[in-house]
Design goal:
single chain, two-stranded parallel sheet, mainly alpha, globular, 14 helices
């Protein structure tokens, strides 16, 4: 309701509840939006690092990168093998909207090797990387809160892209130079903490709750009458043994259909 958009990410619930509690104490919330894009803090950027280190595997790695971002299926055997190895059958194609045009193929990554990561980060910032910031802003605003991120400062933007991308992912460490800069300010436990994206706990309790919601909202009659999705897509997403959880990818797909 507050997003005015069927965004199927479970972190939106966490933002909404966090905002509800924070509004009891403050009027402005500080957040870290754009830091991951400026300093290569997201796991997907490690795929770009691999493209730079292993240019002979670029096709397979780029196809895998595109699949993680837009669910575009890999074409090459190596790309399909990489996807199968990573997901081990837990992934699902997204449900198609009836009557919608097929999604466009993702644009090829720039045909460069040096500073490829910086180029992709810049493209993300100029494209849709701010959607998470806008999403959280809507959810906090529902409780009368404002949200600010110091990482949207223009001088900081310009400085971040003067730093070589080999210092952003150094070895296999994300946000390397940022963590190094924070040594005087943060304890080692915080500096070396791995990336932990906000998400619900995809356990059996969550799967059972999701089933109960889907049984109310995604009945065959309702799916047919609304006309958004093909019924077989919904049935495919809802398949799971009674004593097993939905995979995280399956949970997000079903959650998206529920919210839509």
């Amino acid at each position: 309701w507050h997003l005015e958009d069927p965004v199927g990410r479970s972190d939106t619930v966490l933002y909404f509840e966090t905002g509800r509690l924070a509004a009891e104490h403050v009027g402005v919330v500080l957040a870290g939006y754009a830091a991951d894009t400026l300093y290569a803090g997201m796991p997907r950027y490690k795929i770009i690092k691999l493209i730079q280190v292993f240019p002979w595997a670029r096709t397979a790695l780029e196809e895998f990168y595109n699949y993680t971002q837009s669910s575009t299926p890999p074409n090459s055997l190596a790309g399909r093998t990489l996807k199968s190895f990573f997901y081990r059958g837990s992934d699902l194609p997204p449900p198609m909207i009836r009557g919608a045009a097929l999604p466009e193929q993702p644009k090829p990554l720039p045909k460069i090797r040096a500073e490829l990561l910086n180029r992709i980060e810049m493209d993300a910032l100029l494209g849709s990387a701010d959607l998470g910031y806008a999403r959280a802003g809507c959810l906090y605003l529902a409780h009368g809160l404002k949200i600010r991120s110091p990482y949207t400062d223009l001088d900081l933007f310009q400085h971040a892209f003067q730093i070589s991308d080999r210092l952003k992912i150094h070895g296999w460490r994300e946000k390397h130079i940022f963590r190094e800069a924070m040594i005087p300010l943060l304890p080692p436990a915080a500096l070396n903490r791995p990336k932990n994206p906000q998400a619900m706990k995809y356990d059996l309790a969550f799967s059972e709750a999701l089933d109960r919601i889907a049984e109310d909202i995604l009945t065959p009659e309702a799916v047919r009458s609304r006309g958004f999705f093909e019924l077989f897509d919904i049935e495919r997403m809802r398949r799971r043994p009674s004593n097993r959880t939905y995979s995280p990818e399956q949970s997000l797909r079903l959650w998206t259909a529920v919210i839509t």
